[in-house]
Amino acid sequence: MTTPSSTASAPAPVPAKSDAAARPDFDDNRTTSARARVQQLLHANPTLGPLAVLVLAVIAFTVSNPRFFSAPNLSLVLAQVTVIAVLALGQTLIILTAGIDLSVGAIAVFSSILMASLAVKAGLPGPAALVAGLVLGTAMGALNGFLVTRIKLPPFIVTLGTLTIFFSLNSVVSNSETIRGADMPGLLTWTGTAIPIGGFRLTYGSIIMLLLFALVLFALRNTAWGRHVYATGDDGEAARLAGIRTSRVLLSVYTVAGALYAVGAWILIGRLASASPNVGTDYNLDSITAVVLGGASLFGGRGGVLGTLIGALIVGVFRNGLQLAGVEVVWQGFAIGLLVLVAVSLDQWIRKVKA
Amino acid sequence: MTTPSSTASAPAPVPAKSDAAARPDFDDNRTTSARARVQQLLHANPTLGPLAVLVLAVIAFTVSNPRFFSAPNLSLVLAQVTVIAVLALGQTLIILTAGIDLSVGAIAVFSSILMASLAVKAGLPGPAALVAGLVLGTAMGALNGFLVTRIKLPPFIVTLGTLTIFFSLNSVVSNSETIRGADMPGLLTWTGTAIPIGGFRLTYGSIIMLLLFALVLFALRNTAWGRHVYATGDDGEAARLAGIRTSRVLLSVYTVAGALYAVGAWILIGRLASASPNVGTDYNLDSITAVVLGGASLFGGRGGVLGTLIGALIVGVFRNGLQLAGVEVVWQGFAIGLLVLVAVSLDQWIRKVKA
Amino acid sequence: STPQSSASGGKPIVGLITKTDTNPFFVKMKQGAQDAAGQQGVDLQSFAGKQDGDNEAQVQAIENLISAGAKGFLITPNDSKAIVPSIDKARQAGMVVIALDTPTDPASAVDATYATDNYRAGLLIGQWAKAKFTKEGKQARIALLDLNANQISVDVQRDQGFLEGFGVDVKDKAKIGDEADPRIAGHDVTDGAEDGGRTAMENLLQKDPSINLVYTINEPAAAGAFQALKAAGKEKDVTIVSVDGGCPGVNNVGSGVIGATSMQFPLKMASMGVEAITKFAKDGTKPAASAGKDFVDTGVQLITDQPQDGVEAKDSTWAKQNCWG
Amino acid sequence: MTAPETTQEHGSPGPTAPVLQAKGLIKRYGRVVALGGSDLELYPGEILAVIGDNGAGKSSLIKALSGALVPDEGEIHLDGQRVRFGNPMDARKAGIETVYQTLAVAPGLDIADNLFLGREQRRPGLLGSVLRMLDHKHMRSEARRHMNELGVATLQNIGQPVESLSGGQRQAVAVARAAAFGSRVVILDEPTAALGVKEGNRVLQLIREVRDRGLPVILISHNMPHVFEVADRIHIQRLGRRATVITPRSHSMAEAVAIMTGAVPPPPAVA
Amino acid sequence: MTAPETTQEHGSPGPTAPVLQAKGLIKRYGRVVALGGSDLELYPGEILAVIGDNGAGKSSLIKALSGALVPDEGEIHLDGQRVRFGNPMDARKAGIETVYQTLAVAPGLDIADNLFLGREQRRPGLLGSVLRMLDHKHMRSEARRHMNELGVATLQNIGQPVESLSGGQRQAVAVARAAAFGSRVVILDEPTAALGVKEGNRVLQLIREVRDRGLPVILISHNMPHVFEVADRIHIQRLGRRATVITPRSHSMAEAVAIMTGAVPPPPAVA
Ligand SMILES: Nc1ncnc2c1ncn2[C@@H]1O[C@H](COP(=O)(O)OP(=O)(O)OP(=O)(O)O)[C@@H](O)[C@H]1O
Ligand SMILES: Nc1ncnc2c1ncn2[C@@H]1O[C@H](COP(=O)(O)OP(=O)(O)OP(=O)(O)O)[C@@H](O)[C@H]1O
Ligand SMILES: [Mg+2]
Ligand SMILES: [Mg+2]
């Protein structure tokens, strides 16, 4: 087999020893400078950037108004971001697959109306109304997924279409009327109940939110499904060639997102102690903002849910902090815009260190 | 040089004749079936899909209400889409570079307020106010471009930030007050003037819009800048390695988009015969919708301005046609959502033929 | 409304253009108009802006109505000034135009205006609150939960009316937030919905926990604010006032969530409007404004279960029979 | 290296039926004809090389066999049964494992994740069966082993995302994946193009090992010495069709190249 | 093919100063060291081959020379002047033209657009000077000529987007671009990896032609016969550093491979 011509291009494999001998040069555990260690840390934890921004914002607002860093106010900020955080969690999954969901607000609000209507108007018992609402919300997410994977429409278009469809069904079902929490079974508004922990008041809604984040974090990091979500978003064609059923992954992601939005709807009812058809117009932009502030890429495959949680908190902290700092309403928009830009610049700058 | 070992892997180049002899098999001009010719046509003209959707929509609405296809109504549709079309033109450029612009509405509205305020409140003569407004709008676009290219922030975040900043400056400058067209110099409202052509009434604004589309179409197709825009959006890193100054291209694109939005502002003043600080909240979604309906990819590098024009017309035709067909307001949202989905499915289906 | 009827011109077409199609107030207004249209035998075509302040959608609606050959239309202008040129066009085309709920600027741009006096609506709840606080001998700390940052007319009129009624120097009557009265703890915006109301109230309470009087732009915002107060354990010590008179709001007055609210009458506005246009379509009579005012006041009624001296009011039992949705 | 005599056994298709067979595959893209009626037969236990000029349709041919593209016309038979692969997963389920020329790796995932993509290993016990938890540690150490097997010893960090690997390292990841998991047929499209001399030879060795495990292999390569070193038969693709089939014994490299480029007319197929 | 004696002239660095010189380049990515203090000299009119194992840092080295990456430490000198390339455009302006291993083509643009990317040709006359209109026709015919020159004759449609080309066709586009436009130095990172035998040989020929035009060439390749066929000197990269420099006359292929893989210690650099 060893012909003269093949020798030229294919010498016998060299002894492996020589590689090992050369290894010390490239040892993984060589002593590193402090700067290099910071770099490594940032490299391994891309959420540190947003986290630094969050911490800086908290410090700045505390300086401007010490009341900001009080237990009651911090519980407030947590309660204020809970709904958006849950919605942004679903949005994160979709953005990880290089999609985008404009129907998040519509699904959440419509689900809350469905839960409340089934309980109050159709007279279903609380648990039944809740489950029905969760199932219907999940089905709305699945419809998005179906249109994305079967009809192969771009997610932007699909969710733009279903956004208007769900909102208009929402108007029809609710007749644009608010249903009061006082008229609903207690289960539906239970999520708004708070447990006092010292001066801190933690709502059941927030606890559910934190559990959902832990669950999705686990699934993304530690299950095959999580790997497939990243692979699909990273390079869908490559993932398909590698034998991932990308359509199935996408369908599951949109469905799970729908389920998360429906849980968000439940938390929303608790928070407002009512189901109102007219809330949620900002949920799309707010949830996407939280995801992007958390460091995820709209091109898919990069990012994580911890970043999203931090992103949602950043927005909540800004909104609350600016009000406490006594900034005028007209200038609050200006300040939030500026802060978003500064926050992400800072994050970018922190990341640069590692490159 | 010709050693024995190199012969094996490198035989002398074969006479070119043999390739030529084999060519007939693969001749470009072989007789093709009708189906193949349709495929080729669609392949070469990706705008045919959206165009087919537009034509079908026009036919359907005409059947449902013959008044739809009357000259006055068609002029109306054109006038109604003019502003969005111009804004979508700028948005197209940005989306071609794999960006997105959420500040389009804010820039357009703020520019219109600036033009009107400079003329009415600061007492500038019409041409000076117009030019100043155009320059300021362009500067706002350039600011986006600066943040995207220098600070290297994601376009979504940049324009989200400037969106809120511009809108809040807009409130401050306008004092939230509408300025009436009657108080302005005639030049500012001139774009709303219509020339009757038979029963058709073509506004100067629409003419400007069509000219801008022709101009950008030319630039994208026939200038080096156009090639660079596509290359940058297609694969920014590859374009950079190929020696394109992608930052410069991006900066130029955001600046040109700002200029287009400012012209859109001028047309907007003419159309509404006033400068109102509160319009334009939907311009972001509407302009992106027009671009996507026109077949461009949000991932950059694919699409064109003709598609955008058709996309804008599709939205305008749907809105107007549904109303004329007597569809109820609550159900119009539903119908538009459904139509958007059907339209893009149809386009997708038409494209599939060619693959 | 079938396409044939509008195309063939069988029944006269009457348009209704509301600010949005989600606010229950406008939903009710539309229902009132539809009922009236059914009785009067006209074809009602309705339109709406996409959100408060959306002028362009209303301009398009007017254009489409002109194109459809309508006899006239009712409009709740999103931008009182900016809509005027389009209304002029419609009137030049021979249509009769009636402003509902919100007057145009100038008011003479339309043939008639049937509206709630929003300033008066604010004034009434302001006066009521003043009487209550005076009687109880309390010093007020006021939070104002407005609509949005755009200073649109309803928002401004209700806010400034309330402050005037409470005896605060409002400085520029056309501008929210320029007051210097120390009793004012702060302003925030709510988008007129529950979630906005709750968040705004929470943040203002953090800023100033001694707030004890809350003005809200409408009843959904009031409901949200109440949840914030309840969570902070302050719902007993704080008085909420609002404007609207929708059924959930009236129920909230009954259950003590809202101290007082100013009820408006959208159904009446709508039916009066449709009748006026039908009359014009039949015999060409144009409606006229009521003497003294540049609009036909469809009335405001203060609703409260804690009546105060010197402020005429009805209770929630009456209101439950008269609420609009 | 395997002894020359073993090759003799494998080379002969003889009376045995082909494992994988393509008949008259046609694939057009608009005016472009990628496959103009291409055939292929792969017999049990053989290494079939596919050679041809750039653009001859080699990649298109194997993409059709692995489900990555659906041909416009033509048939594919696996073990004599007609099969239709709608997507790569279908072919993979049937045991056909492929390294594509474009590698098909997920750039943001690390080496271990890519190696086990779609075949992740779970933790033993309840953690794995109930929580479906992945065994990251095991997968990482396996990944390191596979990469070392290919001689890619310069790899400094097994947790590096694949996009930051050197060209050859990336290719090694794709090859290791196919070699580890193929169960019926292994297809390799230019697996050594970016590899160094040592790494390339390891891959050749691996191919022989796979064949010796009884799996037939299809190897596309422009590297004639490599092809002549390992192939049992050589399928020559030209202008979207199979021109002929030769063996390393029947023809020299120079002859093969001449047929491939059209310098000489293709001889009748061997065997 | 060029006559052997011309090679003699080019091979000798002698007293002439290097055109392009790298001194102690270091590039780290987190814990990964891509370049650990690498040097390089390129002399006028020579073909310098760079060989090395996968992951040895060859691509990183030439990326530093072409501005595609900014080294953490180290210096680059062009004609004796220290230069700092912040981006590829800087290097390109200085006349350094590069074919990257990843090709760096715009997938959605067609062949002509890619060939002329950043160097588009305008129409003659006012159309070009005032309207800045591109001369599509001319660029297309030039593109066809360049591709034919590389022997890529299977190309059916010159207007095809590059993403739909076969692997080799795509590589040919990148090579044609560099060869056509280099003015001071041409760098080629694995230009023949995906090319067929014929096409690969044409590229070698092209490299010689470029050298004969007086431009020095840096050629990275894993193909030892190719390297030994055209190189004047051979830079051996190992573990992020230059191990040594040899010439095709001073060492055999087997020796070069042994040095490259670390089987034998590197000899002192030739010349
Ligand atoms: N998606 C596509 N659209 C249009 N043409 C295509 C597409 N895919 C392949 N082709 C064309 O089909 C022909 C065959 O391509 P293929 O990739 O099969 O060649 P190959 O033999 O693998 O070449 P190489 O050795 O360069 O990899 C080429 O001319 C190519 O341009
Ligand atoms: N962006 C990056 N992030 C992390 N590591 C990197 C990055 N780029 C390169 N490396 C590492 O640097 C080392 C050198 O890579 P380089 O691409 O220069 O090798 P090469 O010699 O060109 O190899 P090949 O022959 O396989 O192309 C490799 O170990 C690679 O994993
Ligand atoms: Mg190929
Ligand atoms: Mg390399």
Integer-rounded radius of gyration of chain A:
24 Å
- What is the multimeric organization of the chains shown? heteropentamer
C-alpha geometry of chain C: elongated
The hetero molecules present are: adenosine-5'-triphosphate, magnesium ion
Number of domain modules of chain A: 1
- Silhouette of chain A: globular
Largest sheet of chain A: 2 strands, antiparallel
The CATH architecture of chain A can be given as: Orthogonal Bundle
Order of helices and strands of chain A: HHHHHHHHEHEEHHHHEHHH
The CATH top-level class label of chain A? Mainly Alpha
SSE string of chain C: HEHEHEHEEHEHEHEHEHEHEEH
Q: Would you count the extended β strands of chain A for me?
A: 4
Largest interface (CB within 8 Å) is between: A-B, 47 and 48 residues
Helical percentage of chain A: over 70%
Work out the helix count of chain A. 16
GO molecular function, one term (chains D, E): ATP hydrolysis activity
Protein name (chains D, E): Sugar ABC transporter ATP-binding protein
Domain ABC transporter (chains D, E): 20-264
Keywords (chains D, E): ATP-binding, Nucleotide-binding
Question: What does this molecule look like?
Answer:
The complex is a heteropentamer, with 2 copies of chain A (355 residues), 1 copy of chain C (325 residues) and 2 copies of chain D (271 residues). Chain A is mainly alpha-helical. Chain A contains 16 helices and 4 strands. Chain A has a two-stranded antiparallel ribbon with strand order 1-4. A two-stranded antiparallel ribbon of chain A has the order 2-3. The radius of gyration of chain A is 24 Å and the shape is globular. With 325 residues, chain C is an alpha/beta fold. Chain C has 11 helices and 12 strands. In chain C, the strands form 2 sheets. In chain C, strands 2-1-3-4-5-11 form a 6-stranded parallel beta sheet, with helices on both faces. In chain C, strands 7-6-8-9-10-12 form a 6-stranded mixed beta sheet, sandwiched between helices. In chain C, α5 packs parallel to α6. The radius of gyration of chain C is 20 Å and the shape is elongated. Chain D has a domain of 167 residues: 3-Layer(aba) Sandwich (Rossmann fold). Helix content of chain D is 34%, strand content 23%. Chain D is globular. The interface between A and B is large, with 47 and 48 residues. One magnesium ion binds next to α2 of chain E. One adenosine-5'-triphosphate sits at the interface of chains E and D. Chains D, E: Keywords: ATP-binding, Nucleotide-binding. Chains D, E: It comes from Actinoplanes cyaneus. Chains D, E: One of its GO terms (molecular function) is ATP binding.
